[in-house]
Write a structure and sequence with these properties.
The chain is of the alpha+beta class. It is 31% helix and 24% strand. Helix 1 packs across helix 2.
Length: 390
């Protein structure tokens, strides 16, 4: 379960929006948003493969005829353009886009649809986890939080033209030292970023350095000999031209950086009837509100579902010895304050909206809720209702 040692080192990594796997996630979620914008009851399960100047979309959907293969192709091109790929080996306007998307299986639809007295069922079987802790102000584990933040500020500076010479593809990794169970500083930082051919390793390091120092709390910067930037020395060929990407291949980056369990299902490319996505969001929402309510210092929640069945098969709560409330009582209270059926989750968090492309990089959790409903699962609006039933 979640990390419970007192003194230790712990490492998490992140990858940028331009990493090949994240390009695939972004394109898949752009397709989800396109369908949900046209019809909030659309069903989408779309995977993306990207490689040198080529994107392949595959999967199954149920939605309005207006979302044609051509519309999906244009959504893919726009996503790649927004990331910033205009290199010879991967260019939003010049890449080939093949769309192999077909109608949803009637067998799957039969299990998920609400019919007669049967409520909307889960889109698949599976287990989903949520986690929260007091290591950061957004109640996320510190290593993944700061790994994301480094790449996010670099990407923002690149998009705003504040830095030049860096490409969209990058990775980060931070090792933090914990004393008495709390992070106190970085023992090493690794950043690998795509760059122009006229920049050497030393130049790239000095471009990156201030952004790393900006992100880390005062006094947390690692020793200079443990600050690694492009440790191979050269990273000119990047993105899908350097390595193929696939949807759903960075699930630990998407969640808690390894500090908590993951159910195994990817999020991107799936509409909110798929509990792989929506129930993972609900589990994070519940865990975050438990910690925000100061009922525990850390909280792990597991949900389990069966395809076509509306009620969760189980709800497991683990506060790692930090809870103020009996875990069985807490589990019952959580089910009182939120309907954890697929429909209940979707309606409570208002998930049937085009809010998913923004989740595809820098983590699905620990983000600020948006005014249009994005990252609704990061709200802390269950704190008072939870206290009221305990």
């Amino acid at each position: 379960m979640s990390v419970s040692k007192v003194n230790y080192l712990f490492t998490s990594e992140s990858v940028s929006e331009g990493h090949p796997d994240k390009v695939s996630d972004r394109v898949s979620d752009a397709i989800v948003d396109t369908f949900l914008a046209a019809d909030p009851f659309s069903r989408v399960a779309v995977e993306t493969l990207c490689t040198t100047n080529r994107i392949v979309l595959a999967g199954e959907v149920r939605g309005p005829d207006s979302v044609t293969h051509k519309v999906m192709e244009e959504a893919a091109r726009e996503a790649v353009k927004d990331i910033g790929y205009e290199q010879s080996g991967f260019h939003w306007a010049e890449m080939d886009v093949a769309v192999h998307v077909h109608a949803q299986s009637t067998d799957i639809a039969r299990g998920v649809d609400a019919v007669g007295n049967k409520d909307e069922g889960a889109g698949d079987q599976g287990i989903m986890f949520g986690y929260a802790c007091r290591e950061t102000d957004v109640l996320m584990p510190a290593p993944i939080h700061y790994s994301h933040a480094i790449l996010e500020v670099l990407a923002k500076a690149r998009h705003l033209g504040e830095i030049s010479g860096l490409g969209p593809d990058s990775k980060s990794q931070i090792t933090l030292k914990y004393e008495n169970g709390k992070p106190v500083g970085a023992t090493s930082v690794v950043v690998s970023t795509q760059h122009d051919g006229d920049l050497d390793q030393a130049a790239v390091k000095e471009i990156v350095r201030p952004y790393v120092e900006e992100v880390l709390p005062d006094g947390w910067m690692c020793p200079e000999e443990e600050f690694y930037v492009n440790p191979t020395g050269l990273f000119v060929i990047g993105g899908p031209d350097g390595d193929a990407g696939l949807t759903g291949r960075k699930i630990i980056v998407d969640t808690y950086g390894g500090a908590a369990p993951h159910g195994g299902g990817a999020f991107s490319g799936k509409d909110p009837t798929k509990v792989d996505r929506s129930a993972a969001y609900a589990a994070r929402y519940l865990a975050k509100n438990v910690v925000a309510a100061k009922l525990a210092e850390k909280c792990t929640i597991q949900l389990a579902y069966a395809i076509g069945v509306s009620k969760p098969l189980s709800l497991y709560v683990d506060t790692a010895g930090t809870g103020l409330i009996d875990e069985e009582k807490l589990a019952k209270a959580l089910q009182e304050v939120m309907d954890l059926s697929p429909r209940g989750i979707r309606e409570h968090l208002q998930l049937s909206r085009p809010i998913y492309a923004r989740t595809s990089a820098y983590g699905h959790f620990g983000r600020q809720p948006d005014t249009d409903g994005g990252f609704s699962w990061e709200k802390e609006d269950l704190v008072e209702p939870l206290k009221a039933v305990l």
